[in-house]
Design a protein that fits this description.
about 240 residues, Arc Repressor Mutant, subunit A, 2 domains, two-stranded antiparallel sheet, 10 helices
């Protein structure tokens, strides 16, 4: 996070690394605030990013401690290579991506669910891949994914799917999906839905078009989410359901 290189001692786990990084950031910002204006080598935008980054790290650390206190995370998890790799992805996100709150909340929820090992374990490759995918998504892409996941959980779509299958057609109407996600996402404009839809299809998180004109999509087991898109939403949303 800061310009100071921080290497955790051998006895420290990834949480110890996070604590040291946050402390170093506070010290750096305190030093900048105390210096003469002419000595500042950073733009106001850079400083604002550092301040927000510090807030995000503090919130993540507090949530990690809350999860550990409740016994939701195994004592040895934060000594694992997976935890270090996932935390590094999170740190790079805060340090390099100028994150907004929506993206931070998604990545935080994902990281904490991974740490519980509820849907995976510390030896698996999938958690780090999900961290990388989530980090690359924009706030509006995450909103659209969450809206599609909400539709999937609601089950109403299954009746429509079964009726269409009964007529010999298993293709879902894209226009219906657009209407539903507009209602649930708050994006307001179909143009915004289309823009993010195309991006999510290219990232293999939403099922693609069944017809060249985009008038339909092939139903998946998870409505329109691909298995990868579903598991990403599952990991992120499980945090929200946690006490």
């Amino acid at each position: 996070m800061s310009d100071k290189s921080i290497q955790p001692a051998d006895s420290k786990d990834s949480v110890g690394y996070l604590e040291e990084t946050l402390q170093a950031l506070i010290e750096t910002l305190t030093g900048l605030a105390a210096s003469e204006k002419k000595d500042w080598a950073f733009s106001i935008g850079y400083l604002l990013q550092r301040v927000r980054g510090g807030h995000f790290l503090k919130e993540l650390l507090a949530e990690i401690k809350r999860y550990r206190d409740k016994g939701k995370i195994k004592p040895d998890y934060f000594s694992s290579e997976q935890s270090m790799s996932c935390l590094q992805e999170f740190m790079d996100f805060v340090d390099k991506d100028a994150p907004d709150d929506r993206r931070f909340q998604a990545l935080k929820g994902l990281f904490l669910t991974i740490a519980t090992e509820k849907f995976s374990n510390k030896e698996e490759i999938l958690p780090l891949q999900l961290m990388k995918i989530s980090r690359a998504l924009s706030a509006s892409e995450l909103i659209l994914l969450a809206a599609t996941y909400e539709i999937y959980l609601g089950d109403e779509w299954k009746k429509e799917r079964d009726e269409r299958k009964g007529r010999g057609n298993s293709i879902g109407p894209t226009r219906t999906w657009e209407t539903l996600v507009l209602e649930k996402s708050g994006l307001k404009f179909r143009e915004l839905v289309k823009l993010n839809e195309e991006s999510l299809m290219s990232k293999k998180l939403l099922a693609g078009y069944a017809h060249p004109d985009g008038s339909g999509f092939n139903y998946t087991e998870y409505y329109r989410l691909t298995p990868l898109g579903y598991h990403l939403c599952l990991f992120i949303s499980d945090y929200e359901a946690s006490p």
